[in-house]
UniProtKB/TrEMBL annotation, chain A:
Signal peptide: none annotated. Residues 500-530 are annotated as: Disordered. InterPro entries: DUF112_TM. This is DUF112 domain-containing protein. It holds the Pfam family TctA. It comes from Salinarimonas ramus. The chain crosses the membrane at residues 19-39, 51-71, 77-97, 109-132, 138-160, 167-184, 204-224, 259-284, 324-345, 357-383, 389-410, 422-444, 464-489. Residues 20-441 form the DUF112 domain. PANTHER family: TRICARBOXYLIC TRANSPORT PROTEIN. Keywords: Membrane, Transmembrane, Transmembrane helix.
Automatic annotation (TrEMBL), chain B:
Keywords: Membrane, Transmembrane, Transmembrane helix. InterPro entries: DUF1468 (IPR009936). The chain crosses the membrane at residues 9-29, 41-62, 74-96, 116-144. Residues 10-140 form the DUF1468 domain. Pfam families: TctB. The lineage of its organism: Bacteria, Pseudomonadati, Pseudomonadota, Alphaproteobacteria, Hyphomicrobiales. This is DUF1468 domain-containing protein. Signal peptide: none annotated.
Amino acid sequence: MEILDGLQIGFATAFTLQNLLYCFAGVSIGMIVGVLPGIGHLAAISLLMPLTFHVPATSALVMLAGIYYGAQYGGSITSILLNIPGTASSAVICLDGHPMARNGRAGPALLVTTIASFIGSCIAILVLVLLAPPLARVALAFHSADYFAMMLLGLVASGALVDEKPLIGIASVLIGLVIGLAGIDVNSGAMRFTFGVPDMFNGISIIVLAMALFGIVEVISSVGRTGGIHPGAKRLTFRGLMPSREETRRSTAPILRGAALGTGIGILPGAGGGSMASFMAYAVEKRVAREPGRFGKGAIEGIAAPESANNAAAQSAFIPTLTLGIPGDAIMALMLGALMIHGIMPGPRVVTESPELFWGLAVSFLVGNLMLLVLNIPLIQVWVKILQIPYRLMFPAIVLLIAVGSYSIGRSSFDVMMIAGLGFAGYLLLGLGFSAAPILLGFILGPLLEENLRRSLVVSRGDFAVFVERPISATFVALSVAMLAWAVYSGLRRRKEQAAAEAAATEDDGPGADRPATHPMKTREERNLR
Amino acid sequence: MGSSLSRDFVAGLVAMAIGAFVLFEGSGYALGTARRMGPGFFPVALGGLLLLVGLAITLAGLRTHDRLPKPNPRALVAIPLALVVFALLVERVGFFPAGVAAVLVASAADGGSRPLTALVLALVLVPLAYGLFVLLLGVPIAFVEWRP
């Protein structure tokens, strides 16, 4: 009954004209940035966060979330047509999607990915709707020590799992936590790391940090890339969209398996924007296939499962974010940031105290996915046109949007300058191998982590044993320690292999070696595929 | 850049430097006790951890040979500078001149772009941005003003 009531509120909220418009705007923008290889959905969400400042919380989240899952649809178009991943999570679609396009099956490949995306999303939305309310009820009983331990796990996972160098990943998390310290300490009123600058008293805004790390750094590292992105797209012709009976039969089970896997992975911390889900789904399909040799040559299973998985993960990632207030990756951290900007304290009370937000968002996911299903195929010619816009015309627009957008929040020149400074420093840091997502996650969780640590220790009278005495927090602390140990161990082992390889052959710099890895996942995934 | 310095080694040093700075600055705030954490407790813990992790990265980096990446100096200067120019100008001369200047400076990041193209781009983009933020979203910023 609770769910029916909830859905009723959800439909009433999602189907207001305003929210439908924001949903449409979100998924359209998401599609476009998904198609464009130069702009990630993290950059797009960061860039558009200031817009959401001027609208109600629910509409803001509807739009930002739309950008995220819209990009999951769009990314596979570029993968299939051009063999270039539009987003990190669609990198795996290149493997079989592009061979299909070369075999003249681009149409069916696009239709199957669109349908797989839709089914994957719907299954995850169903799980979200069924699982989130009871989970939120359970979470009401969690103590500050449990929250501390869960956040610890989230942070360790984001640093140690997403990055191929776990120690540098952990250092990135710590740097993020440090940036989060700036401003007035809410408990004592002490000024920390403000250096006497009044503009720093409220700390650094998440929008400022996100625009610097995902907007400015990405622009600096992409400028100079040569001209029109890919004129080759024009040559592809579509001989019908409908998959053959054989192709339909082959893709049904992979779509369902992908959806289940993706939903599960999306809930886990550190899962990194659906990329892990799509890669694991691909690996699973290859393992269960009767003729694994077909993979890499245009096997439809190889696009159906990953596409369903990454969309499912994009939706189920909202489960821990909305029920526990603990984001699994940088995108979810931005979503939490948007909530906090609107004065909503993330946590289990969101579901019960802001039902129109939770249910409205859940129903908007469904609406947005329907829009994408309808939009994707007919607009492919438009997306291909967009691919031909040269980057040298695009990046000044991005810089202008960052400048005006950040200034519009509080009409503060200081914020704009701060983005310039953080962008400059961020470019150098990422060039050294630090990664942006753990920094952002550390930044957003830092104040919450400190607050829960403080509360736990007040209750336990200063005894740190509190974190291992409660079963929930003990479990999460143990998981964090295990993950840390495993990451460090595997990092050392990989380093040894690398050293051996280096000794064998002189190092190859590769085409991307002179650019900092704005997407650490990409390089790692490329490696996993070999 | 020095060919003997590995990327990890430098990364470790940077982490250590940040950690040391946070430790130093944090120790200036009241530390408190575990039972009643002061404002300095968490910063000192973070600084110490970062120093340790940085040390581990530095030591491990002694044995690796990844070279430091070559930065793109032109873009590294021009892009942040465009934001600074916008920030300095917008409150003095208004949205339009500040926006145009920002687009022009940003365009300079790409060595191959021509000034005329950049100017045309600016004249298209800036009014669009003005329409979106000022006219549509209602952020009060003057189109042109003079308050040097």
